[in-house]
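Entry:
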Amino acid sequence: MIQHTSHRHRSHRFRWLALAVVSTSLLMGGCRRAAAPEGALQLWTLQLAPKFNTYMEQVIDRWDDEHPDAPVRWTDLPWGSVERKLLAAVFARTAPDVVNLNPPFAANLASKGGLTDLTPLLPPDAAQRYLPSVWRAARDPKAGQIAVPWYLTVRLSLVNQQLLQQAGVKEPPRRWEDVPAFARRIRERTGRYGLFVTAVPDDSAELLESMVQMGVVLLDEQQRAGFDSPEGRKAFAFWTDLYREGLLPREVVSQGQRRAIELYQSGELALLASGAEFLRSIQTNAPGVAAVTIPQPPLTGDDGTANVALMTLAVPRQSQRPQEALSFALDLTNGPNQARFAREARVLPSSLAALRQVRAELEAERPATPEQAQIREARLLSAKTLEGARVLVPATPGVKRLQSIVYTQLQRAMLGQISSEEAVRTAAEQWNRYSEARWP
């Protein structure tokens, strides 16, 4: 954990510590603490330090100059620790005023009464400042507007054009229904695999998102299993058949997204679902593969809807200064601040003004190298993809349990232990028992 305060109270000496050290010794209370002014707003973010120290300090310094009665103290946490630390802080009544959360954890905390409904505190035009789909994703049907959208990422299809040429495939698949024929052709002609989508319960949600794109309603209005349906059975059969036919790597039931990256970089995978920002890693780690990689639109269902991953800023209910906390969250996510952060972090903004600025800058950019041109093309495609993207998996409390149940039963079907129809029924029964206990 790394903590910061405004320029009047903040030390500018930051330690470059390995993540392993941060997530062990520092979480045990060994982090450096700077003196904070009386009544400072407490901001918690996720794994931005030390890379974005300068950006965050400058934003906070500007805020402090303009709001001397509401200075900000910044604490950055490793990714894996925020849920545990925030729940502990809520229990101890030491929760921050503003906290960086993803939608599932925000929904979980809101269901326990832990987040402020921002609706009565928001300016009248607040919703019009952000992409409508992500603004809606930060709203809970019962708890209200529980967060403000911050930064976004979308997956693209990074395609090994050389493998497609070897297989005689002109275009990569654009819809999930086209995947089996594509994967079969790649496997038969090259001995490689078309794609890798993990079924490991605690890893990527891509498989669950694909089901939504295939028309599956995961949960109904009573939070019961909506996937026990013709669409759900078809989706379970889709993945079961792909695996049993040998068109997916055997490791999809035992290894996560990291294995997909390894296979793609070694030239064993024709299509990798990943963000534009990951191209730099491929260029560094596997320049030969990067040279034949072409960014393409992501796989979707029939309606063309892509998935967007969202990070938000929420105000815990315990905050004694919710209006000031919200004002700071709106400042951090305004157009100029988001546009700059999007440039530095190579993510996408949720602010409409920032998105326009980022797109204009990318269109005006004149790359000096093929590598820079490849990244520019991917980032432009990502920005365009946002026009038809939304958060596909509902940010309902227990969504991680839902993913675990669905993936575990799907694994059993893939491995031939049960049929795909039985996998659907068993997963529905297990989820409904959990749901009925939580939402009688």
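The mean pLDDT is 90.
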